[in-house]
Write a structure and sequence with these properties.
232 residues, globular, 56% helix, Diaminopimelate Epimerase, Chain A, domain 1, alpha/beta, single chain, four-stranded mixed sheet
Length: 232
């Protein structure tokens, strides 16, 4: 075999294993196609798996196959893995996010409801409870539903490309799940949450609080006006 073909063969093998490595935890990506995003997910996923034995796979789909729900797709995908695996999946066209596991016992290591909550914080939940709760049970339910790290970012309107929003939202959710598992297992992740990871949600929370305060002001003002009109 000539030196040229030997070099070409070696390069092909290297690229093959690199592709396998970088695709290990960002298991499928039909949307972002950003090497830094891929590497960030892979580094965090690799560290988590090495320290806990739990694999968290991120799947980014453009669109679900016809006549298939996100739950069915995840369940079929999970059949490919033997190790304890959690799949965090986003489908762009359907605007759907879900988390599924191949072992029900894995849910004890993280709070699925909290991660997928559309409400970012307890303060936000309190304002929403005041405005929308129709009963005491509604109020308690809304108050218990907060801490979302994906949907508040996905629901934020941005101008131009949506890719930055998608990558920030899904990385936040992936990081949230990974950190909760690490805490549950009593290990520390060197590539875990830093201050910079808090900024996107801080912006969303600030904007949402401003909107809620303004809405609450309008609500109270309308109540007073209605009461004043009745007194007259």
């Amino acid at each position: 075999m000539s030196n040229f073909f030997r070099g070409l063969f070696a390069l092909s093998i290297t690229l093959f294993f690199q592709t396998q490595l970088f695709a290990e935890y960002l298991y499928k990506d039909e949307i972002i196609h950003n090497p830094k995003f891929t590497n960030d997910i892979d580094v965090l996923g690799s560290e988590l798996y090495s320290k806990t034995g739990i694999a968290v796979k991120l799947v980014m789909l453009k669109e679900l196959p016809k006549d298939t729900t996100i739950e069915v797709y995840e369940k079929e995908l999970l059949k490919e893995f033997n190790e304890p695996t959690i799949i965090l999946m986003f489908s762009e066209i359907e605007k759907n996010v879900n988390i599924w596991t191949n072992d029900l016992s894995l849910y004890k290591y993280f709070n699925k409801k909290q991660v997928l909550s559309p409400v970012a914080s307890p303060v936000q939940a309190f304002f929403m409870s005041i405005m929308f709760a129709k009963s005491r049970d509604d109020f308690k339910e809304l108050m218990s539903d907060s801490g979302g790290t994906i949907l508040p970012l996905l629901g934020n309107k941005v101008k131009g490309s949506q890719l930055g929003k998608y990558s920030a939202a899904m990385y936040n959710g992936y990081l949230d799940v990974a950190m909760q598992i690490a805490v549950s297992k009593g290990v520390k992740l060197e590539h875990g949450a830093g201050e910079s990871s808090k900024y996107p949600l801080m912006i969303v929370k600030t904007l949402f609080y401003g909107f809620l305060l303004y809405a609450l002001f309008l609500y109270i003002r309308s109540k007073f006006r209605k009461k004043g009109a009745e007194d007259e």
